[in-house]
Amino acid sequence: MASANYSSLENLSENKVFLQTILDLSIKGLMVIDCEGKIIFINKSFEEIHNVAHDEVIGKHVTEIIENTRMHLVAKTGIPEKDVIQHIHGHEYVVSRLPILENGKCLGVIGLIRFEYTDELKNAYKQVEKLQIELQNSKSRSKMNPYTNFTFDDIVAISNSSLQIKQTALRAAASDSTVLLLGETGVGKEVYAHSIHNLSKRNKGPFIRLNCSAIQETLFESELFGYEEGAFTGAKKGGKKGKFELADTGTIFLDEIGDMPLNVQSRLLRVLQESEIDKLGSEALIKVDVRLIAATNENLEELVNQGKFRSDLFYRLNVIPITIPPLRERQLDIPAFIKIMWKRLSVKHGIYHKKISYEALQTLEAYNWPGNVRELNNVLERVMAIVPHDIVTEEHIRTIIQGNQTKKEEYCMTKNCTLNELLYNTEKEAISFALVRSNNNRTLAAKLLGISRALLYKRMHEYNLI
Asked: Whose CB has fewer CB within 10 Å in the chain, the N or C terminal residue?
């Protein structure tokens, strides 16, 4: 009897009707179009929502059935559009449009409704927020300080130099001494600062960051030490707490400290020596219990010799100096960085089918990365967003690193190429790139190109980009 039931179920599973039933029951508003925008499949839910019959729509262009659709545009660009709002018959729906890609070519697009109404989505968000609050309340101690984003688990250390630096930072975290993080722009100094705080005995306290290069000289003292009401024209009612007061019992991270003005350096030195601050407009001293982590890409000893940085402050900061090596000196770390970043970018952009070839990985590892980890992340994000193929090749990586978004032959860089051909291909590529950058927002694309919307539409028609 059981064998007979299994046989019946197996036969049913092979039946087209059975598969159609699954699609009808499991997905709302399912539709599939081909690369030309013609509808090749719909389910029962689609028929009910749009009040159409199957035979009426199959073979028709999607724009004939849905007035405000973008399915045909996704078929042209090959770029997915996930969880966007679309108005259908007076109702708001959250929809996704997912291209079917094969070797970089778009074969068609799947369209489906993720949520029937935005109210349903809002209710889902409320449920998630409620669960998050309950989860936070259930934890006696959070693993991650709410002021920070990184722990030592986020620090990639495969090469010997990276392992040594990470070990030094781990030991520094256990103490309460001042840490001076040194290294080129983009090496990850802030990641180290967060990690040290999260492993320190101050991890339950605040982590307050100030970028010294982003503060006007006249605002430094009020930002660092705060002010009382009426201290100066424009002062807020009730005054304002400074970064040191906000960081009490925790850590203050002064990034780009080499850019701090000399007059502020003297006040900072006094705070470090006395552990007390005086707000602008106040005579009272306020005790603060703060650990300092400073960072710079400058050579502070050179700045001291030039008279641009106080020597006594330098010695006060230089208790535990940690120099983070540039990425070109730790090439063994690059594959691990790529793996982590690629996974994160796939989730961010909703693109999971792209893979990096072995040759492309070798190219990434061989590059000297003057912008370090930050540049690597930017290049990978550009690859994720721009390369239309399933497999990212060595040539894709080289052209993007060089700041050139297409291959030479696509620009017709040959001795037989005419000026008109070169201009045609270059302009078409520039418009395509702007449309990708703007997520097909024509107004923004025109702004990026420095032309009017009318001219953009005219060129899009000329180059068959609509």
From this structure: N
